[in-house]
Amino acid sequence: MLLLTRKEGESLIIEVEGLKEPIELKIVDINNQVRVGVTAPKECKIWREELYQTIQANKQAATVTSALPKANLKSMVQKLNK
After folding, report:
1. Residues 10 and 26: beta-carbon distance below 8 Å
2. How many whole angstroms separate alpha carbon 67 and alpha carbon 74?
3. Is 2 within a domain?
4. d(CA 65, CA 69)
5. Strand pairing of 34-39 and 23-30?
6. Mean pLDDT value across residues 41-65
7. Pairing of β 11-14 and β 34-39
8. Which residue range is the domain that position 63 belongs to?
């Protein structure tokens, strides 16, 4: 992990190979919490960590579910509905 110190109003620029525009992280406010502003290309998805982890878990569950034989899936659904 790279740790950098920034003051309010200062930025970090992240250049990603293959993206036309860089990503800018700007320290907007430092009070009880640090407020970070993000400027990134439209094709860049930006998530809070806890939401990203939920999305990844849902994707993994969907992959496991789709790999089950349909007969097993049907019986599982019937058990859940009881």
Report:
1. yes
2. 13
3. no
4. 9
5. antiparallel
6. 89
7. unpaired
8. 47-82
